[in-house]
Design brief:
The structure is a homodimer of 237-residue chains. Chain A is an all-alpha fold and 237 residues long. In chain A, 78% of the residues lie in helices and 0% in strands. In chain A, helix 2 runs antiparallel to helix 5, helix 2 crosses helix 9 (195-202) and helix 4 packs antiparallel against helix 8.
Amino acid sequence: MTESSDSATPHTESGALEDRAYREAVVDLLGAIAYGEISAFERLAEDAKLAPSLEDKLAIVGMACREFAHVELLRARLVEIGADPFAAMAPFTAALDLFHQHTAPADFYEGLVKAYVGDGLAADFYREIAAYLDPRTRDIVISSLADAGHSEFVVDRVQAAIAADHKLGGRLALWGRRLMGEALTQAQRVAAERDALSALLAGGVDRPALDLAAIGRMFARITEQHADRMSKLGLDA
Amino acid sequence: MTESSDSATPHTESGALEDRAYREAVVDLLGAIAYGEISAFERLAEDAKLAPSLEDKLAIVGMACREFAHVELLRARLVEIGADPFAAMAPFTAALDLFHQHTAPADFYEGLVKAYVGDGLAADFYREIAAYLDPRTRDIVISSLADAGHSEFVVDRVQAAIAADHKLGGRLALWGRRLMGEALTQAQRVAAERDALSALLAGGVDRPALDLAAIGRMFARITEQHADRMSKLGLDA
């Protein structure tokens, strides 16, 4: 989705990482995504316990392990650029843990919607940022966001459950809105605390800033993609 | 380890699965191992929460996902021989769930010892049985028992913890004995309930039975390997 970003000025790898502010932003970004995948694993492993059948449980655990496989990729890149992967993740554990505490699913279907909608939102957001990265880091970020097989399975199960119980549709639509709200709250918190990461979007001496209109368009794209996912599930956004 | 089994008369694949009792035993065996790997995954994913650092947590989750990857192999073989994988696992869920309920680790180190000692015991036992299988099923069983990277990590962490706290060594030695006792209790329960599986060891019309002396030697080998593992951890068996 890099082509959909406004005025992205990607870094070239050679030299880019010597720019201290840029390197700091990359370390933050890789650390945030890596911890996000770890907490996605943990959440899915918990949700697997709610699965109504052993077959559903295996599907969820399979997703969890595919998410986790991405961590190795991000960790290797952090080591490659001389960063400590665990120090890189540390600034993001509080926000991500809070997000998960505030959005603990009450049943199997809330868990499915969260996996699909939450990971979709995170992936859209990181893909937007990826447009500002050197090609090698960008490729790693994009690979780490590959769909872990959520879509088909989740859409199938949620649609069937709503067809069988219409009240569930109303509850899950509210749940989707709550997930979006919590995600924005935590994202703002991170943006306020991590200057380097925000500066990547806000531009720098050699890069034009993303103006307010461009940031607005970015959020419009993310919101639209969220609405698309909700509609695929058969839910009002 | 097939060479260490007494009087094993391996089946050839062609025809072997047409023997109804043999096929039933194979379905049981693959189902038991598959559910064992699923519950190993679940236990490790739980234990990961007890990890003292994010690095240890990642090591445990990595093991959990490697265990889980074996499930696909066993499931595919069950489907290949025309069995329903979930029906094949069903008879073993109670015994394995009970084993895990009775041996919930109180801390990170009990979890590590359980992963290493418990999976080692299960692998030794299934490898002994594998000697009685047709080559293709045997290969799948042996691959599914490959060490999920437990050994080095667990030995390293447990040895360091015992060196720092000698009382821990005494507690973990008792814990290892309890794991062995619970494993034997559940194995006997399964043997009593699953005639086809026991018949595989007890022989059949075209196969000599494993006599009592041979069964005794098999248990002696398993006990010896258990003692080896305990000693590698620095614990009395």
